[in-house]
What does this fold into?
Amino acid sequence: MLVGQRRAHLLSVLDETGRIVAKDVAADLGISEDSIRRDLRDLAAEGLCQRVYGGALPVSPAVVDYATRHAVEPDAKRAVAATAAGLVRPGSTLILDGGTTALAVAQALPADLECTVITNSPTVASALLQHPSADLFLLGGRVFKHSAVTSGAAAVEAAQNVSADLCLIGVTGVHPEAGLTTGDVEDAAMKRALASRAAETYVLASSEKIGAASPYRVLPWGQITGIITDANPTDDMIKQLSALEVEILHAGGAF
It folds into this structure.
């Protein structure tokens, strides 16, 4: 089998099964595991998969630039946002991470909801400027333009001086084995800092993020309250997450 055919086969396996186990594919094709690993390195370099120990997982579509992400599954993000907004109680304090789903949450907060919103996202803050009942607190720091959020030492330090009832964070990948992941190491650290300052933390995960993975781990399962997703409850990945005793809040309700 030629190299191009082999890599096409790998992508086909990834699409059909949601993962590649290098030793299994090598045995099926009758070639060395080292050859498969080289193929996976090349595919990962092209952004076509996310390498993990022993093989590869689907790469998250949420790692594209912020402007492009607005066009990725907008209806799914609105469904997740509506469910998330329903968790915010009158008089409570909310930590709201950045990203396009978080922006949808800001837009979904009822106009008569009195609350305090703490965010590290200038775009989320801008969306809430006209909210008549929400107090707004913006955490400063270096702006990570890819996701339109602040991160780095100054932002983490600012986060350590706030507290909240609820934290809603976005990730780029949710996978039973790879965990909760994102594409930037400082952004991952900022998400951990934000989550540590709230009584409850829910992860915003529209369906395209379920089963995908990115390079940097955000939080272990035990440090979140649950996941809000529009993914179908019968999806194999959702079943695996439920088996890990992760609370799943299903957005949309049309299942």
